[in-house]
Design a protein that fits this description.
With about 110 residues, the protein is an alpha+beta fold. It has a single domain, classed as 3-Layer(aba) Sandwich (Rossmann fold), CATH 3.40.50.300. The chain is built from 3 helices and 4 strands, in the order ββαββαα. Strands 2-1-3-4 form a 4-stranded antiparallel β-sheet.
């Protein structure tokens, strides 16, 4: 195991399309990426690879919701950072923005 500090940490990530964690389609995903590491995610079709990547980027589809977990980049919680953006559907269930509007809102000025 490398002594480099984590660059990306995903901890206990759960994503679903319903209103409760019982409807999660991705459950309890955790991974750590350190400097000078390459990490690949493999799995069967429909196993949640794309939803996991979209959650890490803060770009979940409008219907999807993150029920649990955290994503940290260089120690900073991206989930907490995105909570301040109104209408970000992966942390709230009452979004009125389209995916494109959320991407523009979340982009640096």
């Amino acid at each position: 195991m490398s002594a480099d500090p984590p660059i990306l940490e995903v901890e206990d990530l759960s994503i679903g399309f319903g209103t409760s964690r019982d409807t999660a389609v991705v459950s309890d995903v955790s991974l750590v990426v350190r400097g000078n590491e390459v990490v690949g995610v493999i799995g069967e079709s429909g196993s949640g690879k794309t939803l996991t990547a979209l959650a890490i980027l803060g770009l979940l589809p409008t219907r999807a919701r993150m029920f649990a977990g955290d994503v940290r980049l260089n120690g900073r919680s991206l989930v907490e950072a995105l909570r301040v953006i109104p209408g970000d559907c992966h942390v709230c269930s009452s979004c009125t923005q389209s995916d494109e509007e959320r991407v523009i809102t979340a982009s640096p000025q």
